[in-house]
Amino acid sequence: MVSTASLKALFEAEFGQSPLFFRSPARINLIGEHTDYNEGFVLPAGIDLFCNIAIAPSGSNECTLVACDLEERVSFDAHSDIKSEAFWANYIIGVRRAFRKRGINLPGINAVIRSEVPVGAGLSSSAALESVFAYAFNELFSCGLSKIELTKIAQESENEFIGLQCGIMDMFASIHAQENKAIKLDCRSLSFHYIPLALGQNKLLLFDTMVKHELASSEYNTRREECNAVVSFLQNLGHPVQSLRDVDMVMLSTSQSSINPVLFKRAKYVIEENSRLNSFAESVSKSDWQAAGSLLFQSHEGLKNEYEVSCTELDVLVDAVRGMDGVWGARMMGGGFGGCTLNLVEESKVEAIVDQVNAGYLKSFGLKPKHYIAGTCNGASAF
How far apart are CA 128 and CA 164, in angstroms? Predict the structure, then answer.
């Protein structure tokens, strides 16, 4: 874990100032994938991998960012919306732009960034970056914005400035997370409640495929367009629906003969995933790990065969643990086409599971996947 002492030393060496320190976590999503932008339900939690920053006002109209992990330094005008050639800096420029749209003209800043969140692992490194800066700006300049508004600011950066039409889940989790709890979030109303994550003798084990296929961003936006197309189709038939949240399998099946088969599959997955989420939350509350694990496997099959956002590496990791001693369930997690799998496993079997998965993955792809044991944590904060 990154310490304030190490960040302070880096910041003072760069800028000769005393900074404040903020961090925001990565997130996992237990179940409910690609449901957020369909106004459905999600079940994320913050995990103890953080994007950490040291930050202070620059005393000028210039912003300077130092990304220690990338060994890059970027400067730009505090009031500019011009995109940087350093792509990572655009997430922060986008956040500042969203503040400006709300009538808040942030002054210049100096910042040092050290992130523990692996990029491309499906753990929302970009949301952690956007969220920590949104939170830090709000605190540093006493803007008085609520956590909900900061969440919307972080999402706007991604949607409007970066151009990825993601839902709100990643930023919401990074800002609102609580230790030992998952967030059951209604992505339409943004109402939510916390669900205790009493895993007993179990752990959440992540395996990182170590790949990120180029399809990820383009196909993400395509899936959103496909879902919207189903909604438009049903509206034209006279159904009073606003999103796939309002569609059930009876309504969808009635129209199956006249709807594009690919669009039917996409909608079927979303409808069934919302149902799986409610069943999963109930299973966890009852400590019914067999039922919870089965729902994770079902989620993966839907993502693989109906939503078609999996990839060979993800499928190999999920198939490797299917039937393995100590594994309740597994699925791909995140936008797809790479990133991590989420595995609900018995704590006593973690070492053996990791050894077996490593051996199989090495044989298939010539490398070992990284793995993480995900401990839950609180959301964006000073530290």
Answer: 15
- Round to whole Å and give the CA distance between 53 and 20: 8
Q: Among all chains, which residue has been given the structure tokens 């210049």?
A: 108
CA distance readout (Å), 294 to 247, 329, 343:
24, 6, 11
d(CA 122, CA 124): 6
CA 308/CA 277 separation, integer angstroms: 19
Residue 91: which of 161, 143, 23 has the closest Cα? 161
pLDDT at 247: 98
Residues 235, 125: Cα–Cα separation, whole Å: 36
What are the structure tokens assigned to 243, written together?
A: 């999103």
Is residue 357 classed exposed, middle or buried when 0-12, 13-18 and 19+ CB atoms within 10 A define those classes?
buried
Determine the average pLDDT of the residues in 252-281.
Answer: 97
CA nearest neighbour of 357 among 206, 201, 204: 206
Q: Is the pLDDT of residue 215 over 70?
A: no
For the entire predicted model, the pTM comes to: 0.93
Catalytic residue among 36, 69, 170, 319: 170
- Quote the CA–CA distance of 369 and 380 in Å, as a whole number: 28
Tell me what pLDDT residue 216 has: 61
Whether 69 is a known active-site residue: answer no
CA atoms of 20 and 365, how far apart (whole Å): 43
| Predicted pLDDT at 218 | 81
Assess whether pLDDT exceeds 80 at residue 39.
yes
Q: pLDDT tens-digit profile of 269-290?
A: 999 999 999 999 999 999 999 9
Task: List b or e across 281-294, with b for residues whose CB sees 16 or more CB atoms inside 10 angstroms.
Answer: bebbeeeebebbbb
Residues 6+ apart with CB under 8 A from 91: 126, 129, 130, 133, 157, 158, 161, 162
Which domains are seen in the chain, by residue range? 4-198 (3.30.230.10), 202-373 (3.30.70.890)
Distance CA 256, CA 251 (A): 9
